[in-house]
Design a protein that fits this description.
alpha+beta; 10 helices; 12 strands; about 35% helix
């Protein structure tokens, strides 16, 4: 399995796999995990019970039968997002590989629903050869969401699409963060033969997807939360910098960036140290469990 060795005795693992063969392979790879071989719609996990949900979710123009969500009329990929957000705790992370349609489709209503319930921590657009070994050439995204404690009243820019410098339409997140596109966005869609859509094709400069992905994930701001955790824990920029093998100006810079991104003040710096604001206390409460376990 791919689970880091240092985490194997510290986490409780649960998995869901509809395909019988894949499910039995997962059971062999993760004998300590509770693997359900069934459709996600048939699972009955408690809401607010997981710290992280990770998956390569199905996508398509069809729905599944789940009485709790039938009234939402969700396509299967949207259903996986919404149900998984219900299952993770406040502050929990949902990290999914999904079709680019989640972020790029013209109808922004589902992204608005997601944005009310979760913050977009980051996203990576993969080139259409990422899954070629599995027999498919499709442009996919890796999306990282963090569940909010309360419904957001502010509509972030990633709810909507915009245009790249070449005039092609993509999600505003990628307009603002083109470094997270691991290829060249061109017109067309090889999988469906469309000319009114876009696809991401590999760069032709020799860089491998492994190299590009390793560089891109470093831009995702989980490091911001790690720095915040240490500052809040020690009540000191200096002590946090020592624990992180960094320096005080860099720690202060990261905290400023995190506050700008979240749109609120997280801490007040005084001669006696750092004091968390009410927003800072709420954020610390949301993330300390994960870092203490690790």
């Amino acid at each position: 399995g791919r689970l880091p060795e240092e985490l194997r005795d510290k986490v409780n693992l649960y998995g869901v796999e509809k395909d019988s063969l894949s499910g039995r392979i997962a059971q062999k790879l993760y004998p300590q995990a509770d693997i359900t071989i069934d459709g996600f719609e048939n699972t009955r996990f408690n809401d607010n019970s997981f710290d992280v949900a990770i998956g390569n979710i199905p996508f398509g123009d069809f729905s599944v039968n789940d009485s709790k969500y039938n009234s939402e009329h969700l396509k299967i990929h949207d259903y996986f997002f919404l149900k998984s957000l219900d299952k993770v705790r406040d502050g929990g992370i949902v990290a999914f590989v999904t079709s680019k349609g989640t972020l790029d489709k013209k109808d922004s209503s589902f992204r608005k629903t997601l944005a009310e319930r979760a913050d977009l921590v980051g996203a990576v657009r993969l080139p259409n050869n990422a899954f070629k070994s599995a027999g498919t050439e499709v442009t996919a995204d890796i999306i990282f969401l963090q569940k909010r404690e309360k419904k957001s009243e502010i509509e972030p820019s990633w709810v909507h699409t915009g245009q790249l410098e070449n005039g092609l339409t993509v999600n505003n997140y990628f307009v603002e963060h083109p470094e997270m596109i691991l290829g060249e966005v061109v017109e067309g869609n090889k999988m469906f033969g469309r000319t009114d859509d876009t696809m991401c094709v590999p760069f032709n400069d020799g860089r491998t997807l492994s190299e590009l992905l390793s560089s891109a994930v470093k831009n995702i701001n989980f490091e911001y939360y790690k720095v915040f955790y240490y500052v809040a824990r020690y009540g000191s920029f200096t002590q946090a910098a020592k624990a992180l093998y960094s320096n005080q100006p860099n720690v202060a810079r990261v905290i400023n960036l995190l506050e700008q991104e979240l749109g609120c003040q997280l801490m007040i710096r005084t001669n006696r140290g750092i004091h968390l604001t009410e927003e800072g206390k709420k954020l610390y409460k949301r993330i300390w469990v994960a870092y203490e376990q690790i």
